């Protein structure tokens, strides 16, 4: 029996890969125009990094991590997100000593043992961007503006920026107390999961998808109404800078995000075309994370884009499969070698060339060129070779012209580049 892939893990096939390459190249170009640099980090980290970084009572840590003991007896985890790992590298390599501000990005796979469904996988890919060392609300806005800039560049203009503030260590406790009172007074009406969350992570109840829980939470107290003066100022500056940059947003006071490290600004880019898993990107500020992971008191903010969801929204013609410039069809062994040499010369000059590798009939080679949609076919027959010529067929106009073989590279390059 043939072996299949693991549930929630998927292949990205050649006809989709153009879209991925386009999205990644656009992210690199846009992010670098904001002075971000790429950092590459391991897929596997010590489990403690995520339990401490993301929070013990989050869904990710409680039930979604790929954790195992390696052969030396250490508990290791396939990264469920990149922020904690980037912070780990930043602290471990004392990057803050060289430069007080770091703008870093990571592109790559993450792993979460979630229930697979549309837009949700167990291995999925993210484009992450993080800024360390800046507390000013201007950087919160720059990060959101960069995300929207990227989305516009790849043709996604209709996403909605949703914004919230989650307060800070100073103002959140009094809010959490009020929330808990509210939750306890409605305890019997919540689902079993939410009843448990009242004790473990009350904020997460805002994310419950069950209608009756949602309905109760519609009446619940909101963090935005409990912000302390500094968090309120920060939030007001964020919204006023967004307005100054003519960046539309909506406030979603119920958005709490799934990771515990957030303070103040939290945001998501949401699409109406994605069904239940509607967040294409999410992020926010995490000023306490670097300290919590053993580093100095340095603030941070960032976001991650879910690539599978992003790609599913791109229009079909984006990054469509590449078509070779030329197909070389040959008849007979001598012309096959001659064609092979010519393909090498043209590829060195930057043309994309495909050829008939096997000893097949001219008809079958022409069929393959047609299937690949090659605009030109160069036919090298035995007789032509003896005469030092080749026939160039324009597949669109169905016309042919004879080329002198010694001049062929020059003529072909002029025509196709
Ligand atoms: P997150 O909201 O967990 O945030 O993930 C960000 C994005 O990754 C989501 O909006 C979604 O598009 C995508 N995503 C998450 N889980 C899955 C899944 N199972 N299948 C497919 N796509 C998924 C974070 O990961 C934070 N580290 C973001 C961040 C960076 N915050 C600050 N800096």
Describe this protein's structure.
The structure is a single chain. 39% of the residues lie in helices and 21% in strands. The chain has 417 residues and is of the alpha+beta class. The protein has two domains: 14-171 and 227-313, 2-Layer Sandwich (BirA Bifunctional Protein, domain 2); 326-416, Anticodon-binding domain (Rossmann fold, 3-Layer(aba) Sandwich), CATH 3.40.50.800. The chain has 16 helices and 16 strands. The protein is elongated. The protein has helices at 14-33, 47-54, 59-64, 83-92, 95-98, 137-153, 172-185, 192-200, 211-217, 229-244, 289-292, 307-313, 333-348, 362-371, 382-387, 408-416; strands at residues 37-38, 44-46, 66-69, 75-78, 102-111, 123-132, 160-165, 250-251, 263-270, 279-285, 300-306, 326-330, 353-355, 376-380, 389-394, 399-404. Strand 9 and strand 10 form a beta hairpin. The longest helix has 20 residues, at 14-33. The strands form three sheets. An eight-stranded mixed sheet has the order 1-5-6-11-10-9-7-8. It has a five-stranded mixed sheet with strand order 13-12-14-15-16, sandwiched between helices. Helix 6 (137-153) packs parallel to helix 10. The structure holds histidyl-adenosine monophosphate. Histidyl-adenosine monophosphate (HAM) binds at residues 81, 83, 112, 114, 119-121, 124, 126, 128, 130, 258-259, 279-284, 302-304, 306, 308-309.
Provide a count of the helices. Answer: 16
Question: Spans of 5+ residues with little confidence (pLDDT < 50)?
Answer: none
What is the correct CATH architecture of the largest domain? Answer: 2-Layer Sandwich
Q: Please outline the major beta sheet.
A: 8 strands, mixed
Q: CATH class of the largest domain, anyone? A: Alpha Beta
What is the count of β-strands?
16
């Amino acid at each position: 029996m043939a072996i299949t892939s693991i549930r929630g893990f998927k292949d990205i096939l050649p006809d989709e890969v153009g879209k991925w390459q386009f999205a990644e190249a656009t992210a690199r170009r846009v992010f670098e125009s904001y002075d971000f640099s790429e950092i590459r980090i391991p897929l596997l980290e010590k489990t403690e990094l995520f339990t401490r970084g993301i929070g013990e009572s989050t869904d990710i840590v409680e039930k979604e991590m790929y954790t195992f003991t390696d052969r030396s007896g250490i508990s290791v985890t396939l990264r469920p997100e990149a922020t904690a790992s980037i912070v780990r590298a930043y602290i471990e390599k004392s990057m803050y000593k060289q430069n007080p501000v770091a703008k870093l990005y990571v592109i790559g796979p993450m792993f979460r043992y979630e229930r697979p469904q549309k837009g949700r996988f167990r291995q999925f890919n993210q484009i992450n961007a993080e800024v360390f060392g800046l507390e000013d609300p201007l950087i919160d806005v720059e990060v959101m503006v960069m995300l929207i800039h990227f989305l516009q560049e790849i043709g996604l203009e209709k996403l909605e920026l949703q914004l919230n503030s989650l307060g800070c260590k100073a103002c959140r406790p009094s809010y959490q107390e009020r929330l808990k009172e509210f939750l306890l007074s409605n305890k019997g009406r919540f689902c079993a999961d939410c009843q448990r969350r009242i004790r473990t992570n009350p904020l997460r109840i805002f994310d419950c998808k069950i209608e009756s829980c949602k309905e109760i939470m519609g009446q619940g107290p909101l963090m935005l109404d409990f912000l302390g003066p500094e968090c309120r100022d920060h939030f007001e500056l964020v919204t006023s800078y967004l307005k100054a940059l003519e960046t539309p947003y909506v406030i979603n006071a119920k958005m709490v995000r799934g990771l515990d490290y957030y303070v103040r600004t939290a945001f998501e880019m949401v699409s109406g075309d994605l069904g239940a898993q509607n967040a294409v990107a999410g992020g926010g500020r995490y000023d306490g994370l670097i300290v919590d992971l053993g580093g100095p008191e340095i603030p941070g903010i960032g976001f991650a884009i879910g690539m599978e969801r992003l790609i599913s929204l791109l229009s079909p013609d984006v990054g469509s499969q590449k078509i070779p410039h030329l197909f070389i069809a040959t008849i007979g062994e001598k012309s096959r070698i001659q064609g092979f040499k010519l393909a090498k010369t043209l590829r060195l000059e930057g043309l994309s060339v495909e050829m008939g590798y096997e000893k097949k009939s001219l008809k079958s080679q022409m069929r393959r060129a047609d299937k690949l949609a090659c605009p030109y076919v160069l036919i090298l027959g035995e007789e032509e070779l003896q005469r030092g010529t080749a026939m160039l067929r324009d597949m669109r106009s169905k016309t042919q012209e004879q080329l002198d073989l010694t001049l062929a590279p020059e003529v072909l390059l002029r025509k196709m580049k």
